[in-house]
Design goal:
Length: 239
């Protein structure tokens, strides 16, 4: 049974966007690192794919850096795509929205090659075998001297490290809620937003394993460019 179908629930999507998304630790730094790698790797950035675009925050950042680019924003969740359409309505001429299921290899049918493919907090919902297949499909979609960056939730190396990440997430979310004028206690934030229902959809894999998959597929310059506990930015270049 697929657990990621929880993301078709508008109520859960709203809970995530209003209670979690803005409080993810180092979110802006992760996007900055990813776009820095894109800038270094790509001679031009005219076409970009945002896999698992969610509410469009990553697409928005891409267009701020590359305002003339065309971004194909892809997501499985129609409620998320609707949120992205609202966020990006002033930039809609530069965005192509596409509802597609990354569990199915047909997600990429009809797509032209991209200068860069970027994903944010999406691929960890796929089984590991499918993750690796998807990375191969992404490789085929990238132009020479293009790149793939994955801003991702990855597996901890031990339960102790996982506990450190959960503590960081609780602290970050609690501070964000305080900044938003919300009165929930730290315990309430932890129970409602860190140990929340959609976590059953997470299928986390170690970043080292995923980087090795990318190397075996043919990506070069593969590295984890940023990592704090279970938050990582990794990827590679197709020469």
């Amino acid at each position: 049974m697929r657990t990621d179908k929880v993301w078709q629930d508008p109520t859960l999507v709203n809970q995530f966007l209003t209670g979690v998304r803005g409080g993810i630790p180092f979110a802006s730094e992760q996007i900055h690192v990813a776009l820095r790698v894109v800038e270094a790797a790509c001679s031009q950035v005219k076409r970009v794919a945002d896999l698992g675009c969610g509410d469009g925050v990553l697409t928005q950042a891409i267009l701020m850096r590359y305002p003339q680019a065309i971004v194909t924003a892809i997501d499985f969740s129609e409620p998320m795509l609707e949120q992205a359409r609202q966020r990006l309505r002033s930039q809609s001429v530069h965005v192509e929205f596409r509802q597609a299921d990354l569990h199915d290899s047909q997600w990429c049918e009809g797509l032209e090659p991209f200068d860069a493919v970027i994903s944010g907090y999406c691929i960890h919902h796929l089984p590991d075998t499918r993750k690796r297949q998807l990375y191969s499909e992404i490789y085929q979609l990238i132009k020479p001297k293009g790149c793939f960056l994955n801003i991702e939730h990855v597996a901890s190396s031990s339960p102790w490290v996982e506990s450190l990440f959960n503590e960081l997430l609780v602290d970050s979310l609690y501070q964000w809620h305080q900044d938003q004028g919300k009165t929930a206690s730290k315990v309430e934030v932890a129970e409602r937003f860190v140990y929340r229902d959609d976590k059953i959809a997470n299928i986390l894999a170690p970043v080292e394993v995923q980087c090795q998959w990318l190397r075996e597929i043919g990506f070069q310059e593969v590295d984890c460019y940023f990592k704090v506990f279970e938050l990582a930015v990794f990827g590679g270049v197709r020469y």
